[in-house]
Each structure stands twice: as structure tokens, then as C-alpha cells.
Amino acid sequence: MVVPPSVTNDVAPRCSGLGDSSLAPLPLNDRWRDCWQCLLHHFSSAAGLLSLNDSWRGHCSLPGSNPQPPTPNLQLMHVLQSFSLKGKTALITGGAGLYGRQIVAALAEAGARVFVASRSIEALEVLAADHRSDGLDVTALSLDQGEESSVLALRDELKARDAAPHILVNNAVARTMKDGFNSDAATFAESMRINATGLFLVTRAICEIMPDGGSIINIGSIQGIVGPDATLYEGTTMDGMVPDYFFHKGGINNFSRFCGSYYGSRGIRCNCINAGGFLSGQPEPFLSRYNARTFLGRMAGDEDLKGLIVYLASDASLYMTGACIPLDGGYTAK
User: Fold this and answer.
1) Are strands 26-27 and 11-12 parallel, antiparallel or unpaired?
2) Is the separation of the CB atoms in 67 and 42 below 8 Å?
């Protein structure tokens, strides 16, 4: 552990390199750690390593001192660089929903130029504007995943913008069976047209322009790898017995393996994240039962997908493909 040099004051302001000098002071040790996090981020995002001492002096200095940090671990710096998405373009479908918002944020915060596409263009425009106000590169585009002409128009729009995606996140989903198992058969067919056929069409069209070495990330669900537990919903108005969702979320796992095989010769990877339930105002009876089914005792929150998304999108996962990864707090392992 790095120990900072002693200084006369035991509390120092948060490092200005974090971009907000108005934050409350932190204990010196915490402040030092944050400073090093900034320094490592600086090195991981730079095109090439700068002189450590020059970078350090320009980054921050402790009050009344001239710290000289130890020689950096260049292997560590290289690993951090492999997670950077700078210079890469990402497309995410359906980015205005519960998981979509944090996926967009993760890709943009890691440095990618991000395009987010769905039928909810107004909501996406607001989302993209919010990110741009924070200095991130996010653009909203229109997509009706159930219409091949719309899929091809999106592909052509990206190509015209010189924005062939290195990263595709298939996140969009349509929930068409409003009455669960007793819904009209046409609603099941509609679900397959969008959630199965549409996902295939998006993947095929975008991979036509995706550079070799890219990454496809499919957003699946725990409901694609285990059966429904009807007891979770007892005493609530919730209905989790929706057959189309289990059907296409089960299929997306093996489709991910297929794409890993099909595109492997181009160095394009394809993996699937089987996400657990997202905390969004569920009634207490459901919540207490669901939480008890997990190792961590909770549902997913606003940050829980971000790390895995960046890993699978980045060069840190160059040797991972065809993997179907539960991200569920231990729900499916229990």
C-alpha cells in the first residue's frame, strides 16, 4: 500500500483531478487513494504513458509538500488500458429502460462514442442530451426492431456517419403478452417477431459493418436459464408466468453461442449477460421472497451491470466468447 508523506494538516480537500473541488473534505488517506485512482485513470486513458513525475505534478499536490510517487507498475497500467473504450463506437438497442440506461452510461463513461436506438426516440433524445451535458458522446437514433427496413436504415445511417460499431449491445425487448399465459396467440407471435427475429436481423445487419475484432453483448435474463417460481408473486398483482419471455430469453443464450462460432473467424466475440431482477418499486411480499432467493439479499441496482458491460465490450475480454454469464446476486446459484 502506498503511504503518503506526512503533512501538517490531517484533512485535505479532495483532489481537483476528480473534477469537483466543491466536495466535502476527506481524511487524508481517503484523499490520497482517490488521487491515485485519478492518476491510474489518467494513465489508462492516455494514448501513451507520460512521464510519471510530470503527470503527477500537473495532476495534484498535497498542501505544503512535493510528493514523489513510487515507480508505477507498468503491467498494471497496461491492464487498465485494456478496459478503455476510447476510439471505439458502440450501438445499444433499447437504451431508455431500467438496464439500458446504465449500459449507455457505462459505455460512454469508458470512452466510447455511443449510439442508442429504439422506437422511444423522444425518451432517448432526453437521455442523450443529459449525457452530452456531462461531456459524453451519446446520440439517439430511431429503430423499430420488428421491421427489417428500419434495421437496415439504422445500419446505413451508422455507415453514413462513419460510425460502424465496434460494440453491439442487443438490449431492446418488447413485452407483448399483457395477460400472461392466457394472452392471445397473436401476442406470442408478435413477441417472436421483435424479440427473436428482430434481434437476429439487428445482429446480422450491424455485423456486416462491424470491424473485425468487435464485440456483441446480448442482454438475457435469469428467466432464460431457470423456470419461473410462482410463489414469488403470491399475494401481489404481479404475474411472472409470461411464456414468450422465457422462450426468447432462453433462446438468446444459444444464439449467443451460435454467433460466437459464426463470427469467430473475424475475431468478433459474442457473450450473453443473464441479468437478475431490477429493483423498481416491487411490492414488499415479492421483494422479501426474491431477496431471500439470492446470496446477496437484494435485487440489482443502477450500477450493477456497468462493470461487466465494460469488460465484455473492451479488449480485456479478447479471449471470452460464447459465454452466458449470470449477473444475479447468486439467484441462479442457490
Assistant:
1) antiparallel
2) no
* Coil vs helix vs strand at 285: helix
Domain 83-333 belongs to what architecture? 3-Layer(aba) Sandwich (3.40)
Secondary structure in 3-state letters for 46-74: CCCCCCHHHHHHHHCCCCCCCCCCCCCCH
Q: What percent of the chain has pLDDT over 70?
A: 77
- Find the helix or strand (DSSP H, E) in which 119 lies: none
Dihedral of alpha carbons 233, 237, 238, 241, sign: positive
In whole angstroms, what is the distance from residue 175 CA to residue 155 CA?
24
- The ranges assigned to domains in the chain are 11-81, 83-333
pLDDT at 229 over 80: yes
Q: How far is it, in rounded angstroms, from Cα 127 to Cα 116?
A: 9
**CA–CA distance, 151 with 167 (Å, rounded to integer):** 16
Alpha carbon distance 97, 119 (integer Å): 12
Strand-pair partners of 142 = 118
For residue 315, count other CB atoms closer than 10 A to its CB: 14
Cβ contact 266:212 at 8 Å:
yes
pTM above the 0.90 mark?
A: no
- Grade residue 67 by pLDDT with cuts at 50, 70 and 90: low
Extended strands (E) in 94-185:
113-118, 138-142, 167-170
Contact (CB, 8 A) for 114 and 137: yes
Beta strands in the chain (DSSP E): 11-12, 26-27, 89-93, 113-118, 138-142, 167-170, 215-221, 269-275, 324-327
